[in-house]
Amino acid sequence: MNNFTLGSYMPYDSLIHRLDPRAKIMGMIFFMVAIFIPAGYFPYIILGVVALVLFLIAHLKLRSVWKSMKPMLLMMVFLLVINLLVVRTGYVVVKLGDFAIYSDALAQTFYIAVRLVLMIMITTTLTATTKPLDLTLGIEDLLTPFKVLHVPAHEIAMMISIALRFIPTLIEETQRIMKAQASRGVDMEEGKLKEKIMAVLSLIVPLFVSAFQRAEDLANAMEARGYIPERKRTRYKQLKMAGRDWIMLGCSFLLMAVPILIAMGYLDPLRIGSLFLEGVGYAL
């Protein structure tokens, strides 16, 4: 859990940090839509290159993605086993007696893993380059048109911002409780299944108590400062879109449009790849 960057703001000075939070949020939404478009492997190559470039421009460390993926490895293994048992299409890759492993089972698991990595990279880029207050203001501005439908834009934005802000805090609290339990002789890695369950319970119960206590303290602090969600509020900081924000939005929209057009059959990925290589060769 060390160096877990999701939800943590990294105070660097980069182009991504200087972008308007609304542009970054909309760009993330376009990117997420593109991830789940079934258009083959080629769009994932493009999305992976873009996510990697954004990660490097924001001065973030790639090992943080691996650290964020480690808790999900057990889930990935479980999905792999389920796919191997359920998916029976494609050609046979390995045959062990009466049991056969099909290519579509491996491909489906690979798709899930790639999507998960891309989602972690893009959400980490958003939270690491956007201050919690800016994120709240950006979400509230984007939800403002829905106020005509009586959608509580400010309350939703505040809840999302608080949830993202408390992810690193809860992780630090989990580490503190684990060290305290280990000093009392609790072993969460060795022992029988019943002992492991009891060890996990000894971690979950104090973690929930601590989380509820922090939530109560935060609510009391907000009430003491006169915070009333329903009241009309003024802002000291006003968000303003610049030219680079509109350019980023346009590029994000194109990034979403390409997989959609490929999935609909209007674009040929091989043709796009050849044009891309020709452009790179011409530039060099």
TrEMBL record:
It is a multi-pass membrane protein. The keyword Transmembrane applies. It comes from the Bacteria. The chain crosses the membrane at residues 28-60, 72-94, 106-128, 148-171, 246-267. Keywords: Membrane, Transmembrane, Transmembrane helix. InterPro entries: ABC/ECF_trnsptr_transmembrane. Coiled coil: none annotated. The keyword Membrane applies. It is found in: Membrane. Pfam families: CbiQ. PANTHER family: PROTEIN ABCI12, CHLOROPLASTIC (PTHR33514:SF13). This is Energy-coupling factor transporter transmembrane protein EcfT. It comes from Massilicoli timonensis.
